[in-house]
Automatic annotation (TrEMBL):
Pfam families referenced in this protein's UniProt entry, alphabetically: GrpE
GO molecular function, one term: protein homodimerization activity
Alphabetical list of Gene3D superfamilies matching this protein: 3.90.20.20, Head domain of nucleotide exchange factor GrpE
Quaternary organization: Homodimer.
Compartment list: Cytoplasm
PROSITE patterns with a match to the protein in the record: GRPE (PS01071)
Matching InterPro entries: GrpE, GrpE_CC, GrpE_head, HSP40/DnaJ_pept-bd
Keywords: Chaperone, Cytoplasm, Stress response
Annotated gene: grpE
Record HAMAP family: GrpE
Designated name of the protein: Protein GrpE
């Protein structure tokens, strides 16, 4: 950091990375320390007092003392151009005793070159390396800590590129914003060795995908067999039997699928370390996709937490006597319950207030 003084104004040049500017600066701010002449604190205490100080040892009656000042400055990525960023902060310069005002602070941010995020004209290119597991379960990545892009499995491959229009930088004399480009690349075995947990999750995904394909095939066959060769659909007792048989088939498949969902939900609860954040997002995406798939077959979770205990849908396995909630309300859900077409498949295992 270089510092220059012009009258009561201060000019600073700060070297920062583009990643810091676009991610930390809008939210946390960049901390800058510099030498600054400020109003003497000792003299200021006696300004409104009837007692007057004759000889101030802090400023020697100049009413100004030099201090090392530290401040945090925030900005938005919209202020960035491909040459850097120059901003003016009022009343952060030197103190002027004659006017009783502070000068200005001029800060020029020089952007360091980085390998994973850089300017291409006024466009910003950001490279993201993901693991094979993230490729399988989908991806969620942020645009300057405010907006997010969600990509489901199958929407990107080993090399993909996504655009966020209007989230890039500027060029000099051109006030139209550039584009933020996300370049997605998948790590190979030399860059990332999957852990046992990742391998287990990917294996579970394979099993669930196979089960889903088998179920969809059975449902498709049942639908085709429901009509006779003349194209007429059965009715009466025969139609009721077919409908009941199909419902039993769907219920059996769901009952086989629920333990896998329970395992993923338990794994998600146990992942609380910051290093597990990527895995948490991946498993959350898997669970969201599974719930959407179940909803297509009219399968839904039973609402439980915070609701009144319903013996027809809830199974109380514990009592919570320490809660302040009213009596006979569900305080915790130990295992989710499900219904299919309004019929109970499995009650929710809950803890109830007493």
């Amino acid at each position: 950091m270089t510092e220059k003084t012009s009258g009561y104004d201060i000019e600073l040049k700060v070297d920062v990375t583009l990643e810091t500017l676009v991610n930390e600066c809008p939210k946390k701010g960049i901390e800058i320390s510099y030498d600054r002449d400020m109003k003497c604190r000792v003299c200021s205490e006696y300004e409104k007092s009837p007692i007057r100080i004759k000889n101030c040892k802090a400023c020697h009656n100049t009413h100004v003392e030099s201090v090392r000042h530290t401040a945090k400055f925030k900005t938005t990525p919209g202020n960035i151009d491909n040459q850097g960023m120059s901003l003016v902060y009022k009343e952060h310069g030197h103190y002027c005793p004659a006017t009783n005002k502070y000068g200005r602070l001029f800060v020029t941010y020089n952007i360091k070159k980085e390998s994973n995020i850089y300017f291409d004209g006024k466009d910003i290119i950001k490279e993201l390396w993901i693991t094979p597991l993230q490729l399988r379960v989908g991806l969620k990545f942020s645009i300057w800590e405010k907006h997010y892009i969600y990509k489901k499995p199958g929407e990107f491959s080993d090399y993909s590129r996504f655009y966020a229009l209007g989230y890039g930088g500027y060029e000099l004399d051109d006030r139209e914003r550039g584009t933020l480009n996300f370049v997605i690349r998948v790590k190979d075995e030399s860059q990332h060795r999957p852990s046992e947990f990742e391998l287990a999750v990917m294996k579970r995904i394979d099993v669930l995908e196979d089960q889903l394909k088998i179920s969809q095939k059975k449902i498709s066959q049942t639908s085709c067999q429901s009509a006779d060769p003349n194209g007429k659909f059965p009715f009466g007792k025969e139609a009721a039997e077919m409908s009941s048989e199909r419902a039993r088939g769907v219920k059996a498949f769901i009952e086989d699928l629920l333990p896998s969902i329970d395992s993923l939900e338990k794994a998600l609860e146990n992942m609380r370390a910051p290093s597990d954040q990527a895995h948490r997002e991946g498993i959350s995406l898997i669970l969201d996709l599974q719930q959407k798939a179940l909803a297509k077959y009219d399968v839904y979770k039973i609402p439980a937490k915070g609701r009144k205990f319903d013996p027809y849908q809830h199974e109380a396995v514990a009592v919570n006597s320490e809660t302040t909630m009213p009596k006979n309300l569900v305080t915790d859900v130990l295992q989710e319950g499900y219904t299919h077409a309004g019929r109970l498949i499995r009650p929710a295992m809950v803890r109830v207030s007493s």
